[in-house]
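Supplementary Methods, section 5.1.

A reviewer requested that the exact input to the structure prediction be made available. We therefore reproduce it here, unchanged from the version used in the analyses.
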Amino acid sequence: MSPVEEALRLGVHVVNIATLSLDGTHPSNRFTYYALPETLTNFFYITTFRQSTKVKEIEKNPHVSFTTAPSNEKNAWVGSNDAIAEILDTPIQTVSHLFEDQIDGWHDTVGDLDSNDWVVIKITFASAMIVSQDGVSYFPETEDD
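The structure derived from this sequence is encoded token-by-token as follows.
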């Protein structure tokens, strides 16, 4: 397992996503849960309410940055200033099993998934830095890693 996959899979799946505010004057940060696809490449999913400010900010400017919460046994976190958020035209049920398998109590937290109030957002990162007790590594891996 690569350092980025290990750090993303072993954590509590909490990420801070930073978007640009709607008025374009400052960053807008919020914590949310993320879920990984079964085979990790360079993206993860988040979900939110369709009418949220987060969705409006992403529609206006899809460039985001993120930092995961350090929570696994290596106290690792992953961060990127080179990510794109894409609002998918797919029902939350297509990814809900990933969240339920990876996050204890996720379904109890989000409640009714049958409403049309939810959107799935795919966060794709071109590069990332992984910091852990083992040191610093990068995605994609460099010759120094």
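The helical segments are 3-10, 53-60, 93-102, 106-110. These observations are discussed further in the main text.
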